[in-house]
Design brief:
globular
């Protein structure tokens, strides 16, 4: 019976890649988690209904961080929804939600970004600038093609095959033009010897850049910086949501909470009655 579900997992992963446009990194994560889960859940079949008991799997996850458990169960729950959409009768048993506290995103302060840019070579500078000024996910940066940049706009093939356009700053365009002349990539912005640079390599490159100034930073933190800096600068949340490629405005709302948090922190530092 588990062989049947293993085949369904492969079909689901293909669906996420080909139809939903998930990145190879995300597909790898889903694959590891789904095959781990299917190896531990209990499955019973009565007539055409499959009942999948998550208790054995949840027992295995005891001791792990709550967020990790939540993510693993959520991935399997998404898989079950896919099966139901494919008219496979599936019922999850012991599928209680795990309550986790929501944490605010941690953007990189703009002065750190400027400091890091001053110590970049041309390829590193383009990577930092595109992530920070376009709000790109790392998968979007990896797959960004030369032809996607036209007339001062960047066409981004985002998560879930959602396409959005973001304006390209003149300063960034100038740096990018110099980079393209120097490295002459053929298809993708980030290539080495006509071969597309991988997501992991770009992640490593970015970590190296910020390590030089003594801080840790990830590509997604620069995406957070893009959003929070725009909102702090007075941009409308609906515009920021569209620029980020969020499916729902609710996802963007977290940055307004972050902005309020920073304002409170700065207020407490600045107001005389808050000082010791």
């Amino acid at each position: 019976m588990k062989n049947y579900f293993e085949k369904q997992i492969e079909a689901y992963l293909h669906f996420l890649l080909a139809v939903r446009g998930y990145s190879s990194h995300t597909i790898k994560t889903y694959r590891l988690n789904l095959f781990e889960a299917i190896g531990h859940v209990s499955i019973e079949k009565e007539d055409d209904l499959y009942t999948i008991d998550l208790i054995p799997y949840r027992m295995k996850l005891i001791g792990k961080n709550k967020k990790t458990i939540y993510k693993k169960i959520s991935i399997f729950r998404s898989f079950s929804h896919y099966l139901q959409d494919e008219e496979v009768a599936v019922r999850l048993k012991n599928d209680d939600n795990i309550k986790v506290s929501k944490t605010l995103p941690k953007p990189v302060a703009s002065h750190y970004i400027l400091e890091a840019l001053a110590k970049c070579d041309s390829q590193e500078k383009v990577l930092v600038l595109l992530l920070y000024t376009l709000g790109l996910r790392i998968s979007e940066a990896t797959n960004l093609k030369i032809k996607d940049i036209k007339n001062g706009w960047v066409r981004i093939n985002g998560k879930g095959a959602k396409i959005r356009e973001v304006p390209l700053l003149d300063e960034v365009r100038s740096v990018l033009d110099d980079y393209l002349k120097k490295y002459a990539p053929l298809v993708y912005i980030f290539e080495v010897d006509r071969v597309q640079i991988s997501e992991n390599k770009l992640r490593y490159t970015l970590s190296k850049v910020f390590k030089r100034i003594g801080i840790k930073a990830t590509p997604h933190q620069l995406r957070h910086s893009f959003a929070s800096d725009l909102l702090d600068g007075g941009a409308r949340i609906t515009d920021v949501s569209e620029l980020l490629g969020h499916a729902s405005l609710d996802t963007t709302q977290i940055y307004t909470k972050l902005s309020s948090s920073l304002k409170m922190k700065n207020y407490q530092k600045a107001h005389p009655m808050c000082r010791e």
